[in-house]
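Before relying on records like the one below, remember that each one covers exactly one chain. Contacts with other chains, cofactors or solvent are not represented anywhere in the record.
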Amino acid sequence: MLRDELPKSPKAGDTVREEICGIANGTQIDPVTVGNQTLNVGPLSIECRKLGRCGDGSEGWTKGVLRLLEEFGPFGLAYLEALFRAADWRASLGPED
């Protein structure tokens, strides 16, 4: 589940770090190699956690999930998630499988 992890009542002197599931805004990850192609990844953004649209015009997480829920319904969306997870598990077994 994606949600804000900002403390509701920060204590005086605490540094508040905006992050989702341990990912801070601007986190840089290493390039990823898929087959013979290397994909460079820019800094990660956690702006999608906000309601509505992001600063670049793309839809936020909640708006996207609500759109998918309306299009596929709760059982259709659950089925697609299960299918995606099964494919991820299978791909994670190793490239030789």
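Residues 61-92 form the longest helix (32 residues).
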